Amino acid sequence: MDFRAALLDQTQAFGELIRDADPSTPVPTCPDWTLNQLFRHVGRGNRWAAQIVAERRSQPLNPRDVRDGRPPEDPDAAIDWLNGGVQQLLTAVDQVGSDARVWTFLGPRPAGFWIRRRLHEVLVHFADAALASGADFDPAPELAADAISEWIELTVVQADKHAPPVDRGRTLHLHATESDLGPTGEWTIGNDEHGLSWSHDHGKGDVALRGPVRDLLLAIMRRRQAPELDIEVFGDEAMWDAWLQRTPF
Question: By its UniProt entry, which SUPFAM superfamilies does this protein fall under (predicted)?
């Protein structure tokens, strides 16, 4: 997948969705936020990541210190500001090199990490905006699948060892119904003597969810509950509930 092109495309689509909606619309999946606040959060977040990369920071950047971190009042200028933040990130990665180590919330990582991370941040907030405004949310299956993979990767790395999202000796399985995805449409998360890990292996989990990849993404990101979606849940449903409770973001 071309993460750079996808980040540009998703950010543009997100901006146009916000432009066409009432900016004061509440966003139920981001409590106490409006579409305008969601827009500002996404735009500033891209500039935050761009500044981290450009400065090759080894320490976090306070969001208040992001240069040009507020959008202009004019709607067209605000859209340019949003899209310009993405271009700043891509330019920064090119300038320092995608393999240059910079600060991330997971510890030092190659600068290119931020392109994929910001892509999926925008994608999920596009879902927030679509759900709030009644618009369609229909990402390309391969994009939604990679967003699930990235979220599981982050969850496994950051898991609380004292309250892991999957208990020792148990497994959770997700299975997208889009056959074209192949192995990338399946995810198995387990916890064995080596700790928490995940793979694209096919298997039978103690709990398994099966449905369209878009719906699996909305469910695992807590944007919708599984019973509200076209998802079948097999096995120990309490284990799925525990996963959601133990994977805050």
Answer: DinB/YfiT-like putative metalloenzymes
Q: What is the CATH number of the domain that holds 225?
A: 3.30.1050.10
Name the average pLDDT for the chain: 96
Q: Which of 133, 154, 186 is the last residue of a domain?
A: 133
Residues 61 and 86 in one domain: yes
Confidence of residue 117 (pLDDT cuts 50, 70, 90): very high
CATH code of the domain containing 23: 1.20.120.450
Number of structural domains in the chain: 2
Q: Is this model's pTM higher than 0.90 or not?
A: yes
Other CB atoms within a 10 A radius of the CB of residue 160 amount to 10
